Recover the amino acids of this structure.
């Protein structure tokens, strides 16, 4: 089973876990209704939509409220350390959590006690902690944008805020930044770099690029990177090789945007609603 781990910006929400369902009213986890507008809820909504197409069980969720102060993240870290070794989960997708190297390491130790060990997908704050801990190579997939890739490529930066200026965030330098991230052992086994062109890479270099369809409004929408990560998590859970899953997910995300015809005022839930049709189209392309 796929599990999604992250935070929502509601400090009153306690650590909550349960199967996620996606309906017209939004997301539901453990009896709580959550709007899949951006961040971890958007990732989880996309994963729900993709799992439905792939015939997979609904993703499981471990969530907590955190406005960025870290209290909720630490409560969720503590919960994960306690429960993960006893859970049977085949894919874990870590998302928005306050970066904390000590707690990251404790969670990774707990994951290593799971049998079998799940595949590990990392985005956002937990990715920062994975790199800062020096254990990036323990993961199967990172999903950075170009700016986050520059942080991974900077072997000295302890946090994205401190990425050195000469390591540019220009999409045209993505292959160079990928090489530098792998040279410093600061990347997962596979990378899905999100941008105007999506790049799928491993230590050998760029494997695939995906740049169409290209809906300009996506660049102004928050949450489109989150839906991409949710979709690739479901595809990996379906048993596909990580790099192939990343390529199909990138195509799916772009097809969903084309179907939704968004404007800068659109909500990410409009993209999520189109993921089932988009994924079906992408899979049909694969079968040709």
């Amino acid at each position: 089973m796929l599990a999604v781990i992250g935070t929502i910006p509601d400090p009153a929400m306690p650590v909550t876990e349960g199967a996620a369902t996606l309906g017209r009213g939004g997301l539901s986890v453990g009896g709580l209704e959550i709007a899949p507008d951006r961040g971890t809820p958007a990732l989880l909504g996309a994963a729900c939509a993709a799992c439905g197409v792939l015939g997979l069980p609904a993703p499981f969720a471990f969530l907590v409220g955190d406005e960025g102060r870290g209290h909720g993240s630490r409560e969720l870290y503590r919960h994960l350390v306690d429960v993960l070794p006893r859970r049977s989960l085949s894919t874990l997708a870590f998302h928005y959590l306050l970066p904390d190297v000590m707690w990251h390491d404790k969670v990774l130790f707990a994951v290593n006690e799971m049998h079998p060990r799940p595949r590990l997908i990392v985005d956002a704050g937990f990715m920062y902690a994975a790199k800062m801990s020096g254990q990036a190579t323990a993961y199967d997939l990172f999903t950075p944008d170009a700016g986050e890739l520059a942080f991974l490529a900077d072997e000295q930066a302890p946090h994205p805020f401190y990425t050195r200026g000469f390591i540019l965030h220009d999409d045209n330098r993505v292959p160079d930044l990928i090489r530098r991230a792998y040279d410093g052992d600061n990347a997962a086994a596979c990378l899905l770099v999100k941008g105007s062109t999506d790049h799928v890479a491993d230590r050998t270099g760029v494997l695939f690029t995906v740049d169409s369809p290209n809906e300009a409004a996506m660049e102004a929408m928050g949450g489109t990177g989150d839906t991409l990560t949710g979709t690739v998590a479901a595809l990996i859970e379906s048993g596909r090789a990580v790099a192939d899953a990343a390529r199909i997910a990138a195509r799916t995300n772009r097809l969903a945007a084309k179907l939704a015809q968004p404007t800068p005022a659109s909500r990410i839930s409009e993209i999520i609603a189109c993921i089932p049709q988009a994924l079906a189209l992408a899979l049909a392309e694969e079968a040709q």
Q: What stands out?
A: The first helix runs from residue 39 to 54. Residues 23 and 45 are 9 Å apart (CA to CA). DSSP finds nine helices and eleven strands in the chain. The mean pLDDT is 92.
